[in-house]
Amino acid sequence: MSVTRFLLSENDLPTTWYNVVPDLPKGLPPMLHPGTREPITPADLEPLFPQALIEQEFSTERDIDIPGAVLDVYRQWRPSPLVRAHRLEKALQTPARIYFKYEGVSPAGSHKPNTAVPQAYYNKREGVQKLTTETGAGQWGSSLALACSYFGLECAVYMVRVSYDQKPYRRALMETFGAGVTASPSPLTEAGRAALAADPNSTGSLGLAISEAVEAALNSGGTAKYALGSVLNLVLMHQTIVGQEALRQLELADDYPDVVIGAAGGGSNFAGLALPFLRRQFDGEPAVRLIAVEPASCPSLTQGTYEYDFGDTAGMTPLTKMHTLGHDFRPPAIHAGGLRYHGMAPIVSALKDIDLLEARAVPQLACFEAGVQFARAEGIVPAPESTHAVRVAIDEALECRAAGRSRTIVFSLSGHGHFDMQAYLDYFAGELTD
Amino acid sequence: MSVTRFLLSENDLPTTWYNVVPDLPKGLPPMLHPGTREPITPADLEPLFPQALIEQEFSTERDIDIPGAVLDVYRQWRPSPLVRAHRLEKALQTPARIYFKYEGVSPAGSHKPNTAVPQAYYNKREGVQKLTTETGAGQWGSSLALACSYFGLECAVYMVRVSYDQKPYRRALMETFGAGVTASPSPLTEAGRAALAADPNSTGSLGLAISEAVEAALNSGGTAKYALGSVLNLVLMHQTIVGQEALRQLELADDYPDVVIGAAGGGSNFAGLALPFLRRQFDGEPAVRLIAVEPASCPSLTQGTYEYDFGDTAGMTPLTKMHTLGHDFRPPAIHAGGLRYHGMAPIVSALKDIDLLEARAVPQLACFEAGVQFARAEGIVPAPESTHAVRVAIDEALECRAAGRSRTIVFSLSGHGHFDMQAYLDYFAGELTD
C-alpha cells in the first residue's frame, strides 16, 4: 500500500500567513459603522480588538509574519497530517484519490486554535487581561480557553444554549482549560435579557451569543476585549496555515487536487484550506474547483442574498457585505452548531460573487450517514460540521466511479466528534431530521 | 525553543514486536488449567483464541514479524509522536527534561488498538466470525470495535456497569464502529446472573466482565472467539511497538531516559513502553528506572501477593502466577476504570518479583490534580488512567527541582480524556474521593 499519512516536520511549518485581500480581483467592500453607516476606520475597532489584530484586518500585505511565540504553540500539534483515505476509497470502489487534511489533532480537536492562539498572543502583548467570546458547538470556545490558558488571560465564553445543553463535556473541556462558560441567551447582558424576554425558551444562536460577548467586552471598562472565531479577514488569514501545509504535503504525494472541499459556517475552515490553492491560481497555475459546503437548514451562500448586514443579532457589530439570511434568521437546532450562522465571511462571499468558488447545501441526515461511513473506514469519528465536507467528498468520489475517471479530491476534516457523540446516538436512534 | 514533537515517518515503523519472555532471567511460571491445575497446553486455549495468537502466547522467539496487513492499519496513526513537554517543564520550574509518548492519537484514543488490530486480523484469517470481550473505561472495547470494523468481524462488548453508566459516549463510539454493547453484570450469562443475584446493584468489575465475555465465546458453538486487551504475553508483546518507536525518537532527540513511567492496570500500557528499554539493559546498556503506577485503591503490584490466581471473577480462565488482590476483590468505582483490575500481567509481575521495576500506588485526587496541571500546560486532557503516569512524572520532576539536578523522564500518555469529562466535572465539583 502506498503512503497513508503525509507528515512534515516542525521545521517545515509555514512562517507566514497568506492574506488574500490584495489578490481579490474586485477588492473587498468596506465594513460600515453600525451607527453612521460610513466606512469604519481602524480606530472604530479599538474598543474590541488590539492594535496588531486591527492592522491585520485592514492589511493589504500578501504575507504576514507569524510571531515566534505563536509558532512555538503551533508546534504542539502542527504541521497537522494530510491523510490519504485508502480505506474509504476502497469502500467506495472509486478510482478517485481522496485526501483529508486532519485538524482534529489539535488540543481542542479542531482548526480553531490556529486563530485562537495568535488572537490570545496579540491581546496579551497589548496588556489585555480578559477575552470574551461566543461559541456554537464549543469548538471555538475550547480553543480560545486553551489559548488564554497558554498566555495567562482570563476567558469568558457565551455558549449557544442548544449546544450548552447538548454538550456538557465541551463545557467541561473549557473549564478544564480554565475558562468561565455562560449559556446564551443569558441574563448577564442587555442583548441576552431582550432575547429571553421575547422567548424564555430560546435555544440561542451564534449571532445572539456574539452580541452578548461584544457587549460584555464593551462594558468591561477596557480590561477585556473580544475574540471572534470566524468571519473576519484576520481569522481566515490565520487559518491559511492549513492550506499552505496541505500544498507542501501534496508535493510529497506528487499529486495536486482537482477539487478542494470544506464545510463553511462562518467560512474560516473552508477558506483556510482553499485560499492557498486559490493563490496558486492567481499566480498562473490551473484552477482548482473549490467547494464550500453548508447545511441545507442554514444556507447563507446558496440561498442568502449578497448585501450589507450585521454580524450579530442585536446589530452591535459593523455591517459587512456578505451572503446572509438576515441577522434575525434563527437556524433550527441542528447538531452542526458551528455551521448555524446567518452570514458568511466577506472574503468567501466576495469569491462566491465572482464565481471563484462553488457552494453546495447538504441535509443533516446525509451528512451523518457519510460521517458513519467515514468512521468505519478511516477510524475517525468526524465532528458534525466536518461531516458536511465528508458528504461532498464522497459524492464527488462516487461521481468519479460513475464516470469511470480518476480525480484528486482534498477535503478538510476540520475536527473530531468526540464531544458530539450525542448527535451520533440521536442519529442511530432515528431521532434526527433534515 | 528546541524541538517539541519527535516524529517518525511510516517507513520508520518497527516491523517486529519484541517478546521479552526468552529474556526473562528466571523465565515465566506456566499457566495452569482451571480444572486440573496442570500446566495448560496450546490446545487448551483453542476454544478461546486462534492458532496464531496461541503460538505468540507460548513463543520463545525474541522478535515476531508484524503482518503487512497489520502495519497497513498501524500506519493510520503510527508512529505516534514523542513530545517534549516544554511547557510543563516551565510550569514546574524543573531542570528535568520530560517527554511523553502520546498514544491518544489513535482512532480509539489510546494504546489499545495496537493489540486490537492484530487480534482481529488473526481471528479473521482463521475464519472466526465474531469476537467477544470486556471493557472497563471503554478504551479497549472501542479499540476492538474499530479493529473488528476494519476486518469485517462482529464484535460483542461486555462493559463494566460503572463505566457503562458514567460513559454513554464511549458506548456511542463503539456503536459508531458497529459493535454491540452490554452492561456487565448482564442477564445474558451465567456469571452475570450469579453476580446480579448476589447484588442487583453491582457496579461490576473487569474480572466479572471477562467471565461474561469468555462464557459467551465458549457458548457460541465455535463461531466466536474471545479477545483480551491486557495481561496476556501476546498483548504486552503487541504493545512493544510503542517503546520501540520511543527509542528511535529519543535518538532523534539525542537523549536517553533515566526513568520510564507508565500507568499499570493489567500491565500492557506500562510494558509496551518499558520492555524495549529493558531489552537494551539485557543487551548490556545501563539500566533505566522503570516505574509502574497503579491506583492506591487497586494496588495489586504494591499490596497484592505474588501467587497463582484466576484472571476473572468466576474462575473460568487459566490460573497465572501474578501479583493479585484476589480474584474476588471488588475495586471501588474510581474513574480510572481501565486500572480497576485485581491482578497484573504475569510478565510485569515476574519483573517486579526480581526487582527489575519499581511500583508506585497513587491516590485518585492527586492524579486529577496532575491531569489538570498537564492539560493547562500541554493542551491535552489526559485519560484518568494516564493521569497516574502524569502524577509520578511530575513528582519525579519536582524531585529534580528540589535536588537541583537534571534527569530525563519519559512517560506514557496512554490516552486522551475526551470521553472522561464527567470525571473532570466531578473533580472540579469536589465530588471525588481518594
UniProtKB/TrEMBL annotation, chains A, B:
PTM annotation (N6-(pyridoxal phosphate)lysine): residues: 112
Gene3D superfamilies: 3.40.50.1100
Keyword list, A-Z: Amino-acid biosynthesis, Aromatic amino acid biosynthesis, Lyase, Pyridoxal phosphate, Tryptophan biosynthesis
GO cellular component, one term: cytoplasm
The protein's enzyme class: lyase
Pathway membership: Amino-acid biosynthesis; L-tryptophan biosynthesis; L-tryptophan from chorismate: step 5/5
Catalytic activity, as annotated: (1S,2R)-1-C-(indol-3-yl)glycerol 3-phosphate + L-serine = D-glyceraldehyde 3-phosphate + L-tryptophan + H2O
InterPro entries: Trp_synth_b-like, Trp_synth_b_CS, Trp_synth_beta, Trp_synth_beta/beta-like, TrpB-like_PALP, TrpB-like_PALP_sf
Cofactor section: pyridoxal 5'-phosphate
A molecular function GO annotation: L-serine hydro-lyase (adding indole, L-tryptophan-forming) activity
Entry EC number(s): 4.2.1.20
Domain annotation Tryptophan synthase beta chain-like PALP: ranges: 76-415
Pfam families in alphabetical order: PALP (PF00291)
PANTHER family in alphabetical order: TRYPTOPHAN SYNTHASE, TRYPTOPHAN SYNTHASE-RELATED
Function statement: The beta subunit is responsible for the synthesis of L-tryptophan from indole and L-serine.
HAMAP family, alphabetized: Trp_synth_beta
NCBIfam families attached to this UniProt entry: PRK12391.1, trpB_rel
Family designation: Belongs to the TrpB family.
Subunit comment: Tetramer of two alpha and two beta chains.
UniProt-recorded name of the protein: Tryptophan synthase beta chain
Protein species of origin: Cryptosporangium aurantiacum
Gene: trpB
